[in-house]
Amino acid sequence: MNQTFEAIFKDNVKRMHYQVDGLSSDKSHIQVVIWPTFSGLTDFEKGIADHIASLGFSATALDLYGIDQNPVEMEQKRAKMGALVAEADPLHELQNELTQSACDAIHGKTIVHIGFCLGGRLALEAGLHLENSAGAVSFHGLMSFFRAQSEEKANTKTKILVLNGHQDPLVTEDDAQEAKRYWTSLAMDFQFVDFSNTMHSFMLPSANNPEHGSQYNPLVAKRGYSYLESFLEEFI
Question: Which part of the chain is the Dienelactone hydrolase domain (predicted)?
């Protein structure tokens, strides 16, 4: 494994995930694992976990970088993101370790990964490559996730929901179609929803950079929560 990757993401990295138990006895066995943006675990992801728990499901927002290790400057965020997704095997090993630590006793839990921006891609990675995953939801995530080396190595039983801004400059029409063709080739259950007049980061209240294609959209965010709740209900 790449030593730089280990130094950044594994060696002596202490993490504190944000765990919220579900409030419904018939839903709490569904464990939603929340992958953060490239800014790391923030109040935004914790708020998502609280919202999911209010619906009755259990949720864990992952501490991706470690306590007090979130990057602050844009250059730092891009550098950490680049190191994280540079190689498939280290990434998936880390995702498996974080998922296990987040879910305590995985046995008996139905694990659904969700994520935002970078986390959207990470949710798709986890859904496709971690065999204990039942579902994956990407909010304005990139479609550059690592494809499985063979059909036998893909977790084709994962259900996929992609919520995408149609005006997101980071997801081209070719990107979207190629991902759809890939999932179709594996006969996977997927939904790909395009929201009109919607840019990247539409779920993030702090996003306000339309000149660079990033803008919060409160109406679409509300719709996104509705799609998520409906998707999670499928696993009850």
Answer: 30-234
